[in-house]
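Hey, why these numbers?
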Amino acid sequence: MRLNLVFVGKTAFQDMHSAAERYLQRIRHYIPVAVHLVKAERITAATRDDAVRERESHRMLKLVGTQDYLVVWDRKGVHMDSEEFSGLIAGLRDRGTPNVWMVVGGPLGVSRTLTDRADSLLSFSRMTFPHDLARLVVLEQLYRAFTIIRGEPYHK
C-alpha cells in the first residue's frame, strides 16, 4: 500500500512544518508515503467560497486515480477514535489496496464533488481547525494508527 497525502498550499508556520516532517519520517518507517501540495486559491472579499472550493478540489481530484481509495477529511465526516481509524488503515492494507489518498482541504474546505467521490469521509471534530494544524493532526493520527496496528507502545 502507498499513502498519498494531499494538502492545499504550503505550511505557513515553520514550527508546524518541522513537526509535520518529523511525523512524516516516522510514518515512512511503516509505509511509503508521498505528499502532494496543490495550489491554494487566493481568497478575497470578492471571491465566492464555493468557487474556491471547486477549483482547489478539482486540482486534488486530478491526482487521484479512479480505482484509488480516497479519504477526505471534512467537518461533515464520520468521527472515529484512534483505534477505529487504525482499523480502517489496517483493513485497507489487508485488502491489498494499492493507493490510498488522504485529502485535507484548504481554509474553506472541499467541494461537494470531492466529498461525493470520497470512499471515506472523516472528521477531526465538530470544531474548526487551522489548515496547518489539521495537517499535523492527520500525520500524528496516521503515525498513531501504525503504532496501534503493530502493537507498539506509543498509543498507551
Observations:
- The mean pLDDT is 95.
- Strands lie at 2-8, 33-38, 69-79, 99-104, 120-123.
- Residues 2-155 form a domain with the Alpha/beta knot fold (CATH 3.40.1280.10).
